[in-house]
């Protein structure tokens, strides 16, 4: 079979899979041509090209899954090593601020729910019957107070 006809068949099959990705199309056509160059049966050529496309998609999916798993594992490791220290410091700061009468137990609850329980302003506002903007204002005031405690206590 002549080369132009073979490449036209392979291109039509591969183009149906990858649509606009020229880099993938070139790679698939090359791989498919290497497999199908000695074949005479058009159906077999199309099947080879189709299988090369499917293999490429499977490899991409496996790579993405591996990348996600790697990122998830390393983010958990990062959180374990880096987030434990700030939380302890924040607890110490809150204890010092409460003992000094700088923040109230309600303010401590806001900090606790926002930073440790990862609750959103919207969720907290529903529970506390306050507007989310009011909570944001209170949080910024409490954070400013905690910063002052940290500066004065040398934390």
Structure keywords:
mainly alpha; Arc Repressor Mutant, subunit A; 84% helix; rod-shaped; 155 residues; 2 domains
In short:
With 155 residues, the chain is mainly alpha-helical. It contains seven helices and no strands.
How do the strands and helices of this protein lay out in sequence?
Elements: H1 3-18, H2 22-36, H3 42-82, H4 84-99, H5 105-116, H6 121-128, H7 132-153
Explained architecture:
With 155 residues, the protein is an all-alpha fold. The chain folds into 2 domains: 78 residues; 70 residues, Arc Repressor Mutant, subunit A (Orthogonal Bundle), CATH 1.10.10. It is 84% helix and 0% strand. The longest helix is centred in the middle third of the chain and has 41 residues.
- State the share of residues found in helices, binned by percent: over 70%
Number of strands: 0
In whole angstroms, how far apart are the ends? 79 Å
**Helix count, DSSP H or I runs of 4 or more residues:** 7
Strand content: under 5%
Structural class: mainly alpha
* Subunit organisation of the chains: single chain
């Amino acid at each position: 079979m002549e080369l132009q006809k073979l490449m036209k068949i392979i291109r039509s099959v591969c183009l149906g899979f990858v649509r606009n990705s020229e880099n993938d199309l070139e790679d698939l056509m090359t791989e498919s041509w290497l497999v199908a160059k000695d074949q005479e049966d058009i159906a077999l050529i199309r099947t080879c090209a189709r299988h090369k496309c499917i293999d490429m998609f499977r490899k991409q999916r496996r790579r993405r899954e591996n990348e996600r798993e790697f990122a998830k594992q390393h983010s958990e490791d990062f959180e374990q090593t880096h987030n434990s220290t700030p939380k302890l410091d924040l607890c110490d700061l809150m204890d010092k601020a409460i003992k000094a009468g700088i923040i109230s137990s309600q303010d401590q609850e806001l900090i606790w729910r926002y930073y440790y329980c990862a609750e959103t302003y919207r969720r907290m506002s529903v529970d506390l019957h306050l507007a989310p903007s009011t909570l944001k204002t209170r949080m910024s005031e409490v954070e400013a107070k905690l910063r002052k405690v940290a500066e004065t206590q040398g934390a």
